[in-house]
Design goal:
The protein is an alpha/beta fold. The chain contains 16 helices and 17 strands. It has a 7-stranded parallel β-sheet, with helices on both faces. Strands 8, 9, 10, 11, 12 and 13 form a 6-stranded mixed β-sheet that branches. A two-stranded antiparallel ribbon has the order 14-15. InterPro entries: Asp/hSer_DH_NAD-bd, DRL_cat, NAD(P)-bd_dom_sf.
Amino acid sequence: MLGMNRRLQKLEESGKPIQVALIGAGQMGKGMMSQIEGMKGMKVSLTADINLQNVHDGYHKAGVAADSIKEASEATEANDIITSGGYVATSHASLAYETDAIDVVVDATGVPNLGAELAWNTIQHGKHIVMLNVEADITVGAILYKEALDKGVVYTGSAGDEPGAVMELYDFADALGFDVVALGKGKNNPLNLESNPDIARDEAIRKGANPKMLASFQDGTKTMVEMNAVANATGYVPDQPGMHGHVGTVKDLPSIFRKVEDGGKISKHGIVDYVNGVAPGVFAIVTSDKPEVKHELTYLSMGEGPHYVLYRPYHLTSLETPLSVAKAFIDREPTIAPYAGLIGETVTVAKRDLKAGEYLDGIGEFTVYGKLYEYEEAKSMNALPIGLVHRAVRMKNDVAKGSVITYADVEAEKDTFIWDLRAKQDEMF
């Protein structure tokens, strides 16, 4: 984001930094807190987490003096603390959007239902919302984005998250007039559709990760969700349900992403996919019908063509989120949003044989995983979106392992915000 450092410097010099509220002080949240504390022009003035110790630990690790951190349970109290230069620790997530002094709210909860409710309420309170919650975005992002436009605020995904990093390459290539053939990300572990927290536990402990989160990467759900967000932002679709998941290195990408009849492995252009062997990077495959452009790309050592790869070898997850905060506040623009509407749908698939009467659990757990389809195909199947799965969803029918679970196969015994919002979105779109 060219020049953002200088604009943030001006905010710092003005004594009016962007006041940020963070909801969720887990691994991602704590990283963001520390990153922002070292930046100019913004401040994580309020952090909410159900476990207050997480908040205090996050501020401590960021180098915030303990005597400047005050606990609050009311918005007026939080507002007074922030306007006097202090930091608020709270277990009340609603203070993030109810506190007048806050400019931008960041959702780092990772819980689809909670994220949907937080985003909706933040928008209603006239504040910008940055989502580190792709699961909520792919489920109800279309209606949240429209609501934000109507209310004159910004709804956005996060820089550093893989969808945001892919979007950075897409916007660059599209602005230059390249024909963007494919968009994708690396996957850093083999696909294991049966992975669950027990299977992932030892590796998770070694990496200091949550076993459920790691399992959601191993079973492919997170990859499907992330490329679903890219699909909804760009209009690109999976070449087949679940995408291909080819294996290769960066130098292999231009040949992999050619049509089969041209010696490649895809059936059409304008697709999203993932590749084992290029993690943690993201990529865009581009071409041009202009001979001089191809000649220049070859001269610049971008390959022999006709396809070329734009590759970003890193994504810094929540450490880059502050750039989306700044873009939303200063430029009033998203980093990534569902501009194209409902293009993809990550549907719910049975991880094992499921029986009528059983309850589902959640993403990265024992009963289900997600698989990316084109939205219209998923709709024709009456498929259940993965973001609607929670522990009060009960199976009405037996569903075999590997089969798509439909709305007709389940009943939700407890109304949730995201189910209601999804119903409104389905009516609207």
